[in-house]
Every structure is written in structure tokens, then in C-alpha cells.
Amino acid sequence: MKIFNLRTQVNEILTNSLILFPFILIFLSEILLPIVPMVSSVFKVGAVLYMFLFAIISLKFHASFLILLGLFIPLFIYGILHSFNIYAAISEGIRYLFPISVLMYGYAIRRHFKFLLMAFIVFVIINDLWQIVNYVNWYRGVTQWFYNTDIYGNRYFNASSGIIRATGIVGFFGLFGFINLIAFFLTRRYYTGKWKTLLLSSFLISLFLSFSYKTIGALLVLLFLQYKNKLKFFQIVGILFVIALIAIPKVVASMGESIILRLEQYVTEGDSARAESYRVMFAEISNFNLFGRGVGSFGGPASVTYNSPIYSEHHFNWFYTIDLTTTDTFFPHLFVEMGLIGGLLYLLVLLAPLTLSWKRDKFKLVFAVYFALFFDALFSYSLNNIAFLIVSIGFLYPLYFYREEEPILTEDVYNPIDS
């Protein structure tokens, strides 16, 4: 009997290790990105290959996903062959495979939601606690591993409102805010232990300390949509705003200025590379760009490295960001490179899990995941960032197949944030 139990435990540890392996590779690549970018890229590609191999060996696939993928692949091959530079096409084409690999892997590990959730929550907690170390080092003036380097070789860090943006151990404030957002909604739905309120508060505070305005905006919109009592929602937000205005007036004022500046750059004035990328996208659509200008031709790092002609053709203005390697906007990148038909088909592949028969409560969580990811992609490359993808759409199939009669924890405690 003891031998049987030991064998079962060993098998379980081995299975869990195999499941977590690509997660470990991906987040190690994020940590190594500012230090050794080449090694970071190898880890990412290794994780993608592992997920594809794991999914193929499992021999289990979502039929609707395969049908949509089959429709997209011919257009994808055409996009690679049609590109202005085959090396740019191959380099950027790999990134198109990231979400596909994550969805295939998510289906292969669809029976392991409980383990994935617990491992993810622990990982986010470690990040939130490590941020204390980051703050101490920042206050002491210590140069930290995740600091950026400008074109003159000087080290600098991302800050907002006079405060360093929270990054945890993942090293990027956008990803740090995003994992806390996903952890908040997963915990809010599935964790009923006595630490629930503390965990939710920690995730919210950490999210705001990232000063990732798109993630904060996504949070507020999602909470507004999910709150049954809309008036109560505005009352709570108003009270929190007044408290913040009294406690940290300079920070609130600085955040307000940052929001206004971003609205000017991206919407009213349009004097940013991001706004320019949308101008190019709408121009290409109006010119009936149905099948794209070719993979690697616009928006991504390959288009800059190999000097794509589209930038000069559209008189693209980088404004004061000439050192950028990307336009940092996913949808213009997608629709210019793949065209209207190719771009829409690609998005349908990513949305394939929605073709399943979701229960209402689970669908609310799925909507939150997709909304957060797609909203972030309006201003970033989150839809081909493997770290963003694996902690968002990577959970969808396991979430669908998770049986509600198997609670994460049975102890239920009243939580005012859930009201």
C-alpha cells in the first residue's frame, strides 16, 4: 500500500512538472530578456516547440479550433511568401504561432485547472512580495537587473507619478499588472478560503502600483459590467478616489496628467507612433488590403530591422520615439500584414474556445480574460507576447473542463469586494 501511494505521488509530481515546464521557460525568458536577450528568445522558442509537441503527443484537439486553423494556414503561408523579405517573414511568423501553441497546449492539459490555478496564484504572490525588494533597491539607488538601457548606454527605469512602476520578478510593469488582473478575477471566482479578501486586496494594490493604465482601465470596465448595482459601483469608486486624493494628492494629479497626455497622443492629437500605426491600418483597409502586405512587413521588430518599405510609403512619423523597434500596437500590425480577411481569420482562431457551450458563470470569467487581453493589445503586443498568452487564453480550456463540484477550497468567508 505504501509503495502504491509513493508511486502515485511520484507520478503526480512528474505530471505537474511536465505541465509547468513551459510556464517556467516562458517566465525565465522574461527575467532574462533585459540581461541576455538571445538566451531569452531561445527559451521562448523552446517553450513554443514543447507546447506543440505536448499537444501533438496528447492526440486531443478542439474540432472548431482545427477547422479555423485550417482556413487560416493557407493565408499565413501566402503572407510569408508574399513578404518583402523572407527573413523578416520567418522571424515575425514565429510570433504568429505563439497563441496557437498556447491554445493547443491548453486543450492538452484541460483536466488540470485546479493545479494550474494554485500554481499561478502562488507565482503572482511571489511577484507581489518580491516587489518590496524592488522598492527597497530603488529607494537605495541600486541599479536593478530589469532596468532599461538607452541609445547612449545609460540605465533607466520606468516610472510614473515619481514612483518606479511595479514589476515583481517578471521585470515588466505591463506583465506584472496583467498577471495581477487575471489573478484577481480567478481568485474572485474560485477561491473561498479565509485569505480571500487579503489576496484580492493584494492583487488590486499591486495592479495599481504597476501604473499600467490600460490594465487599470480594463479592470474598471470589467468591474462596472459585472456589478449588478451600478450606483453602488460608482459610490465605491468615488469614495476610493476621494481617499486617494486626500492621502496621495500628488500621485493622483500625476496620474491624471499621464492619462490626459495619452489621450492626446493616441486620440485627439495623434502625435505618437501608436496613433500613426492605426492611421496606416485604416489606410490599408480603405485600399482593399484583403490578404495583407506580407508577414514581417509592418509594426513588429522584423519590419524595422529589415527596413520595410511600408513606413516610407505611408510617410510614417515616429515622432520622438525613433529608438523604438516596434509600433507597439498589435491590431495594425496584424491587419496590415495579413489583410482584412487574414486578420479576421486569425482572430477567429484565437476566439475558438468561445464556440464551446459555456456556462454563464464561467463565460463571465472568459469574457474578462478576452477583454483584458484584447484591450491591452490596442496599445501593445500582448496578443503575440507568449507570457501574456499563457496566463490568459492558456487557462480557457482547463476552465471549461473544470467540474464545479470540485471546489478549490470549501471554506467560505464573506467578501465585500464580491458584493
From TrEMBL:
Keywords: Membrane, Transmembrane, Transmembrane helix. Signal peptide: none annotated. The chain crosses the membrane at residues 12-29, 35-56, 63-81, 87-108, 115-133, 163-186, 198-227, 233-253, 334-356. This is O-antigen ligase domain-containing protein. It comes from Aequorivita aurantiaca. The lineage of its organism: Bacteria, Pseudomonadati, Bacteroidota, Flavobacteriia, Flavobacteriales.
